[in-house]
Amino acid sequence: MRPDTPAEHIAEAERLIRTANRYPEDQEPLLLQAAAHLELADVRERASALYDQLLSAAPVNTHLIKALQAANLWEYGHEAEARALISGIRAAAPDDPAPWEVIAETLEAHDELDASHECFTQAAQLLITDEEPLTTSTTALLTGRHRVRRLLGLAHDDWDMVADTRHTGPIPLDELHDPKRIWALGSDDPAELRAEIARLRAELGDRRAALSRPFPVALLHWPLQELAELLASYPTLASEYPSHAAHLTDIETSLRALAASGTTNLGIVTASVPSFEAFAASEKTSPASPSLLAEYATTLAARGKATPWPPSPTTPCWCASTKPYATCHGGPLL
Ligand SMILES: [Zn+2]
Ligand SMILES: [Zn+2]
Known about the structure:
The protein is mostly helical and 334 residues long. It contains 16 helices and three strands. It is 61% helix and 4% strand. Helix 6 packs antiparallel against helix 7 and helix 7 runs antiparallel to helix 8. The two termini are 29 Å apart. The site of one zinc ion (ZN) has 5 residues, from loops. One zinc ion binds next to helix 9 and helix 10.
C-alpha cells in the first residue's frame, strides 16, 4: 500500500500535486509531501522545482522548506546554492528546531563535521533553555549533536549527558554513535561496518521522513451519523464496517498495533459522506469501492486534516464521546 519503488513514489507525488491543485488552501503540506516522494524516487530536479514553487507562495514553514531544498540541491551537485541557503537559515536563526536539524544533518552527510557541530550547537543554544522542557524535536537536536561530537572524538559535555539520558532505543546512544565502529573503514569486517552505517542511516532517515511527512499514517474515522448514511448509500462497504462500535474499536486497536511496531506520527482523520463522494469523483471512480477508503484517508492526512494520536489521557476521546481518552478508547479494549 505504501509507495516503495521509484515509479510508485512518482505516482504518489503526482496524485498529491493534483490534490494540491484542487485544494489550494492545503497546498503547503501536500506539495511538501509530494517533494519528499520525488526525493525518494531520486528525481531531484522535480523536487527542487516544487520547493521553489512553495517558497514563491509565502509558505508557513519557510525555513524548513529552504532547509529541505538545500539538502536536496546538495544531493545532486548544487553545493554552492545549498551552502548559500544554509548560511541564510543560520543568519535568520529560526525558532523552529526542524530546519536546524535538516541543515546540520546535510552538513554531516557531506562530511562537514565541524560546521555540522556548530549548527547543532547554535540551535541548542537558541532553543533549549532552563524554562522550556525538552520536546521530541529539541531532543533530536541533542541526539544529532551527540552523534557528530562522537564522530569528532570530543568528550561528553552536559548536553551529551542529556542526550544519553533521553535516548529510549534498545541500543545505548554511545554504542550507536561509537566512532570506532564508524571509522572502521577498510577494517577486517566490512559487513559489520555496513550494518553500522545502515543503522545510523535508518536513525537519520526516520527523523527526516517525519519532518517532511507530519502524518504519514492516518486512519479514517466515520462519525455515527456519517457511517449510517455511507452504508445506506453504498451497501458494499458494509463488509468493512460491521457496526459503528466495532469501527471505533478497530481504529484504536490498529493504531496501537502500529505504534507497537514502531510507527511514529500516527493520526486520525474524520470522514464525511459528501467529502468522500467528492474524492471518488475526483479519482474518477465509484464511492462503493472499498479500496478507495485508504486513499481517501491518506489524502485527508496529506491535506493536514489529521488529528495526532494518541490524545493525552485527560483530553476528550477522539471518538467524540466527550469522555476523557483514558476512560474511553484509551482504556483497556474489550
Ligand atoms: Zn553519550
Ligand atoms: Zn472514545
